[in-house]
């Protein structure tokens, strides 16, 4: 049985599994709180195929600062490594 992480974590089991894999608390929480996260695998468009505006929106969602000064390639790297 997964530990209860409080109301801020929507899927405790998913959160614990991601933490066990070595993800940061922030990233594990973001993924665990995504609706239907386990059902979306492979359906997101490749970052390279997205426009810079789409990448800026994604960077904003994950709270990246300095995103407007980045080139498209820098945004892609920053999103992948966040």
TrEMBL record:
Q: Which InterPro entries match?
A: DUF7218 (IPR055642), Rho_N_sf (IPR036269)
Region feature (Disordered): 1-82
Top-level taxon of origin: Bacteria
According to UniProt, the name of this protein is: Rho termination factor
Give me the stretches of Basic and acidic residues compositional bias: 1-29, 43-61, 72-82
Q: Which Pfam families match?
A: DUF7218
Which SUPFAM superfamilies does its entry note? Rho N-terminal domain-like
């Amino acid at each position: 049985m997964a530990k209860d992480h409080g109301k801020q974590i929507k899927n405790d089991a998913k959160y614990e599994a991601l933490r066990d894999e070595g993800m940061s608390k922030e990233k594990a929480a973001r993924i665990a709180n995504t609706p239907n996260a386990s059902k979306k695998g492979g359906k997101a468009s490749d970052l390279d195929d997205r426009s810079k505006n789409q990448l800026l929106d994604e960077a904003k969602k994950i709270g990246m600062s300095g995103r407007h000064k980045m080139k498209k390639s820098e945004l892609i790297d920053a999103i992948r490594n966040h």
